[in-house]
Amino acid sequence: MKRFLIFLILLFALSGCTQKSEEGIRTEIYAAGTTYLESMQKSVEELDQSPSKSVVSNSDHFKDVCTKKFDYSKLSSKETKFVDRVGDLRIAYEHVVDSRNSKYKDSFNEEAALSEFNSLSQKFINNYKVDK
C-alpha cells in the first residue's frame, strides 16, 4: 500500500512537469513560441531595421527551451510542427527587417516581405489559438 501511495504521488508530480496546452504542445514550448512571435510582431510594427534585443532574447529562450530543457529529437510531431512554424516566422521576420535596412535594400522587397510575414503570423495565430 505504501509503495502504491508513493507511486501515485510521483505520478501526480511528474504529470505537472509535462503539462500540455490545448493544442497538445508542452506549455513551456507554446509560451516561448508565442512570446517570440509577439516580439517579432512588435519589432515589425516599430519599423526596426535589424532584429531588436527583445527578438534576439526571445529567440535564444525559445531555442533553449526546445533543445536544452526538452530534447528536440524527442518532441511530438505536433511540437515539431509548432517549432517549424516559428522558424518560418523567423525567416519571414528577417526578410522584413532586412528589407528596411539600407545595407540590404536591393535584396528584399519590403511590401512582399511584410505581406508574407503578416500572412504567416495570421495562420499561426489561427492554428495555435494565440491571444492577440
What's a quick, concise take on this entry?
With 132 residues, the protein is mainly alpha-helical. It has helices spanning 2-17, 27-45, 53-69, 77-100, 110-128.
Tell me about this structure.
α2 runs parallel beside α4 (77-100). It is built from 5 helices and no strands. The protein is elongated. It has 132 residues and is mostly helical. 72% of the residues lie in helices and 0% in strands.
Features:
elongated, mainly alpha, 132 residues, 72% helix
Mean pLDDT: 83
**Number of H/I helices:** 5
User: How far apart are the first and last residues' alpha carbons, in Å?
Assistant: 49 Å
Rg for CA atoms: 18 Å
Category from helices, strands and their pairing: mainly alpha
Which bin fits the share of residues in helices? over 70%
Low-confidence stretches: 4-8, 10-18
Q: What is the beta-strand fraction?
A: under 5%
The sequence of SSEs as H and E is HHHHH
Shape: elongated
Which helices and strands, and how do they pair?
Elements: H1 2-17, H2 27-45, H3 53-69, H4 77-100, H5 110-128
Helix pairs in contact: 2-3, 2-4, 4-5
